[in-house]
What does this fold into?
Amino acid sequence: MSTSTARKRVNPIRHILLFDPERFDNSRVDVIGCGAVGSRIAMEMAKLGVRNLHLWDGDCVESHNIANQLFTLTDIGRPKVEALAEAILAATGLESTAHHQRIESPVTLGSVVFLAVDTMAARRAIFKDCLHLKFTTQVVIDVRMGVEELRVYGFNPRSRAEVLAWEATLTNDAQTVESACGARTTVGATAGITACIAVHRFLQYYRRDVVRDPAFLQPPHFEQVMMLRPLITITRGV
It folds into this structure.
């Protein structure tokens, strides 16, 4: 890489004490679902300096996506992952790997996986095919969002207790009203809050498991729930 190119990459000086990309090395991060929350998570991770970012989504950008997702009018008709990878490159100088597909069969995922998919059924299938009893993934961060409610879950896919606690939150899609990123009505501002909490959960994992910061020896709360009207925050451990 030339010196001029290196200067155009994201500079982590403002957050290097909290997250150092060099210490994270080239660890892989997968963002599965690049809609309202997933697109923002991917951009924030890239701005942290994460270099090995994989984006998964089988959809193309539609006009109604512009109101609450990280896309522009010129992206309409393009695969979401390609438009997002281009936006990330323009904003950070970092290249992402775009997978224009839904995960519907076993694939190898990275050390950190963000689940920002539309349905509970998709979560179950991805966990069964790609995460259960696999040793490549260290932490799964699952995000769900309605209009004025958000939930963020973080768990170790190799911990039976944590997996069972997470599985207990997976309701039947037919009975679920406005949950996850697939709710019929969503707000970009709520998506931004959800994405920031999810990325903060990643930073907690980094401080505890990568840097081994003594201040982060205790595991973070398994579940974080925020109601925006009225403002209520709930946290729960396993």
